[in-house]
Fold these 2 entries.
Entry 1:
Amino acid sequence: MRGVRQHVNPFGLAYLEPRARAARYLARSTQPDRVEVELGCADADFSFGLAAAQPGWQVVGLDIREPVIERNSRRAERVGLANLEFAYCNLSTDLDRVFAANCVDRFHLLFPDPWIKPRHRKRRVLTQTLCGVLASQLRPGGELHVATDVFELALEMLAELEDPAAAALGFRNLTGPWRFAQEGPVPLASRREVITRRRGQRVWRMRYVVHKTALVTGTRRRSPDPAT
Ligand SMILES: C[S@@+](CC[C@H](N)C(=O)[O-])C[C@H]1O[C@@H](n2cnc3c(N)ncnc32)[C@H](O)[C@@H]1O
């Protein structure tokens, strides 16, 4: 994307103050049957494809880079996709402000920035803190779909999701413990996946379903807690 910074530091001062807003579709009088969210969407080819293929689903693309969000929003309006919205969110600090508990059917974390340098590793997004927020916002039986082309990062994310702490949140590997998935949940690829495959490189994919006990399962709420 020309003229837009490739990377921003999620722990930079400008991004630490929580300022993400509740997803706009939550304010509508009628709610969609299904909500799919792309975390770190960049150009959002995946989200555009999903919204076009499934007009009855609500698709939300989130990214920390505001110029990317503005550009995607203009494009969604231009192509007339009313079931697609984009919003600013720093996944490291304020996803809890965007959705209420039990209202997302599937999160897609596709090709997150690998932050290879040792001093940058703390910027990687999939932490136990994020897992806790995702588990809370997924409806019972909802899914987390993760993909990357960086094997080291794939192993780290797999370890995070196989951790007993993630199991306690309800995450179960759809493919079996410690296994990568062969196929994604929908026949669509993000821009980064298309590039990876064109280069003949491997995609490492994980799919986790979240199980919730009756105790942690609330009803679908229409907006996040105003106190957040
Ligand atoms: C490599 S791109 C992947 C884009 C797209 N999902 C794909 O597969 O083509 C990673 C995206 O994650 C975004 N990102 C990185 N850290 C983030 C954070 N803490 N919160 C939200 N977005 C973040 C970046 O701005 C970038 O757009």
Entry 2:
Amino acid sequence: MPESRLHFAGRVRQALNDENLQRALTSAMTGIRGRRDAGFADFDFTKGREDLKQRRRANLDRLPELARQFAERLEAVGGQVHFAADAAEARDIIGQLCWNAAAEHARGAGVRPVVTKVKSMAAEEIELNPYLESLGIEVVETDLGERMVQLTGTRPSHIIAPAIHLTKEDAARVFGTEPTVEAIQHHARLSLRQKFIEAVVGISGANMAIAESGTVVLVTNEGNADLTVTLPPVHIALFGMDKLVGSYEDAIAQLRMLTRSGTGQRITSYVNWITGPSRSADIEQSLTIGVHGPGEMHCVILDNGRERMRDDPLFREALTCIRCGACSNACPSFMAVGGHQFGHIYNGPIGLVLTPFHHGLSQADLPNTLCTQCNACQEACPVDIPLPRQILEHRRHGRKSLRKRALLGLWERPALADRVLRAGAPLSGAIPGAPKLAGRPYSDRARQTRGLGDPLTIFASCMADRALPEAAVALERIAVAAGFDVGFPKAQWCCGLMAANAGDFEGACKLNTSLAASLRDSKGAIVTPSASCFGAFTIDAGDWGARAGSDLVPRFRDSTRFVLELLEQRPELVRRPAERPRVAYHDSCQSLRQLGLSREPRRLLELAGYEVVEIPDIAKCCGFGGTFSFEWPGAAARLAQWKLDAIGKTGCGLVASDNPGCLVHIAANARARRQKVRIAHVLELVAERLEPRPVPAR
Ligand code: SF4
Ligand code: SF4
């Protein structure tokens, strides 16, 4: 039975309130991100990504052929290949192999056979451990983190760092030792030594399986993998068919990006290249199998939904994932709630994408709603998988909360929304953390076109209109000062982004179509102070199936680039003070990662006489995320808290951005914690620098 929303919300709340977990997550994830960035200091990420992406996609096209080739090459050197269509089949195959090994290499009647294991997400995927335990086999995880997870009876909370949610105090409790790294490791080493020797089977996954040679590659650091795959008489490697690569060159290209993306290492301590069972021809040149290492080597290649994914044009690229974990490390929501909440067995951004294929939609549709669509995961992904878009696609088919449905229902009825928002405005500021609505929306005060000068149309966006009308007023003032004849079609409302982000593409199309109709008779450039709405109208709407506004796209301009061009051409429009006020600039996710606006807003502020200060952000997202902050106020507040802490570190009393949603959200959270900081749209700061000139009365 799928988990209820109430239960899931309880887990999220508990995670947010768990100080130990919060400490473990923020310290581990900020550390790992720093190491990742350092790892790419001497290696061009963009080039490496392009090369790997091409290789992985080419291999994906040839998967069936690679699987055949891999099997032929491995069998030629004495290994065996088994294909498993699903998790149950894979469990049966492995269970039988373990049982055979136990019978052949038994240490005496009544002695429970031991199987050692290297950390493997494929084994987690098929829930192998409980199955083997049910057969009377003792399963011993040998990776330190995975062993901690096993002993606590939980699941890995990160695909490459399974115990990232645990502190050393937690680990000490698990092992019954002093809370020092040395004591914990010493205990783990001693307790595992005998198990390595007793094991009848060693089970591993595979980071890569090279078709041209039948080689399995394992990339590890601790040394446990070497002991697991060489000491027992039988080695079983379980991996998804997506792990197949064509050649050594493919494997090396992947290795370079994997270690840097995952842990920031140029190379890990151990990389095992295993091609069949152990063998020797030292005695009279006669080949014998199984010398120091295993006499049997089996590879179990798993489908379990992967072929279905390969057939799907949108999800196909998820099979190029190299399981580096960089997407989880980049994800602000993951850092806030941890992998046990942000995913199912596979967690993190890639987990939200894979789970519906391996374990069913209902196992990840609630965690899916924790994604703010910030795009940080795709930015860090070494194969450029469009994770946010894939997550959104699953969201379309998942359960939607009553709260979200009510909000979307309201938004899709502009006349009703208008009445409700006006009625709610006086009270809105009293709710801690909630946006303060404007008593007088921009639509009430917008200037009417006068027929003098070049025409320009303002699309305010529903957010600026109702919660940050100052941004639209500032845009209007700048445009008027530059001599434009400004118009504002009154029927305009929402571009549809909020509905689309909530997984309601039909609603998004409806809103987008109405907006296009309201703007159709307008004149000149259509400029918006909302970077995310600009991206939604010009880039995303096609994805939702909204085509009505495509003829308007060439007229759309984001306010940052538009005003920057104005000031570059006409610097006399503004006056610059002798002393430049310091302003901390917040990059909104869409602005930075969808529109590539990084230099532009900073340059614009500088031209208007400000000194821009960078925010040492640990989350890369303020937590607004459209309906995310409405659905998960606690998680959204945590992200805003990190942002406000970072703003505090700059010593600036002024923060700017070009996205009304972010500004309103940051301001609401600053109010809730009584942080004294002025939060303003870039346009407001520019408008305050306009040379004084008579402003025509409204
Ligand atoms: S888009 Fe942002 S919040 Fe969503 S999964 Fe990716 S990194 Fe996490
Ligand atoms: S989706 Fe990309 S970043 Fe995430 S684990 Fe896979 S390869 Fe790494």
